[in-house]
């Protein structure tokens, strides 16, 4: 059973930066595509970024392209999200997700992942 624990959320001013981390335990981390999603109050889960099991392929949601960077360290079983130039509309609960099914496609939908962390709050003040 894979467990994911996020950290690094908090309150930051517009234009600031935060780095989120997600640490996995159990399972074989290097086999999993990983992703970050976010959910603002009253909204659906939004795709933020994904990274393939090899780390060679990354995808980003349109709203974060050029500002956020996803990376992984399989030795440490962590996936990180570096968030720069933060905006108030980035305010949300951020979730780490793992796709534990071995497949080629790197998912960009919430339903393509089958394991999620508890979420970490990111608040960007204007």
What keyword list fits this structure?
126 residues, mainly beta, seven-stranded mixed sheet, four-stranded antiparallel sheet, globular
Shape: globular
Specify the biggest β-sheet. 7 strands, mixed
In N-to-C order, the SSE pattern is EEEEEEEEEEE
- What would you report as the Rg, rounded to the nearest angstrom? 13 Å
Low-confidence stretches: none
The total beta strand count reads 11
Derived from helix and strand composition plus strand pairing, the structural class reads mainly beta
Count of DSSP H/I helices: 0
Could you characterize the architecture of this molecule?
There is one protein chain. The protein has 126 residues and is mostly beta strands. It is 0% helix and 48% strand. The chain contains no helices and eleven strands. Strands 2, 4, 5, 6, 9, 10 and 11 form a seven-stranded mixed sheet that branches. It has a four-stranded antiparallel sheet with strand order 1-3-8-7, with no helix packed on it. The radius of gyration is 13 Å and the shape is globular. It starts with a strand and ends with a strand.
Walk me through the topology.
Layout: E1 3-7, E2 10-13, E3 18-25, E4 33-39, E5 46-51, E6 58-60, E7 68-73, E8 78-83, E9 92-99, E10 115-116, E11 120-125
Parallel strand pairs: 2-11
Antiparallel strand pairs: 1-3, 3-8, 4-5, 4-9, 5-6, 7-8, 9-10, 9-11
